[in-house]
Amino acid sequence: MEYVTAVPHPRPEAAAARSGRRSLAVALLCGAAGAAVALLASRQRWAEGTASVAGGAFPLTARGSDITGVPAALAVVGLAALVAVFAVRRSGRVLVAALLALSGAGTVAAALNGASDDGALDEKAAQASGDTAATAASLSHTGWPYVAVAGGVLLLLAGLLALRYGRSWPAMSGRYERSGAPRPRAAKPLDPDRPEDLWKALDRGEDPTGTGPA
């Protein structure tokens, strides 16, 4: 005799909820890590060179923030957008998610553009030599601009995930939002030595003795 066992199929709502939780975790991880990596990379040396000063070679270095401040600024914007995703809903969430993705794309473009930029070193060479026409020599570039590119890619991925799955993510609870309704005033305690307070309480329909009806 054969037995047929019915295996329940997973509900589409449960599968969507699991997918939303996974995408939320990945987006948070990518967004936070991407912003941290881009900020860290912007503070490192991106280019090195020398300037001719008094017949000798004067070493020059340029950090990412000396070459371009765009990656660091966009990393802060992207991190703020990642937090703001949970404070808005519907179309507002789509706009914030798009801002997050654009921050990542802008970080990538700015870091790639600054990877071969020599302008900051030329300015340092002119300052060191006192000659406005002086330029840096023996130029070399480090790999930190591409680390900033990786941070931008992570921010971009977080933004794309927010655009795709953000509608199923939870929003900030309403109990944390400030209501515009005025708070009720606390009742002033009645002073039994002031008869006018007792009469005012009676006019309002209150029991001035505080005992209430028997």
From TrEMBL:
Transmembrane segments: 24-42, 67-87, 94-112, 144-163
InterPro entries for the chain: Trp_biosyn_TM_oprn/chp, Trp_synth-assoc_CHP
Residue ranges of the region described as Disordered: 174-214
Highest taxon listed in the record's lineage: Bacteria
Biased composition (Basic and acidic residues): 188-207
Keywords: Membrane, Transmembrane, Transmembrane helix
Keyword Oxidoreductase: no
Protein name, UniProt field: TIGR02234 family membrane protein
Taxonomic source organism: Streptomyces andamanensis
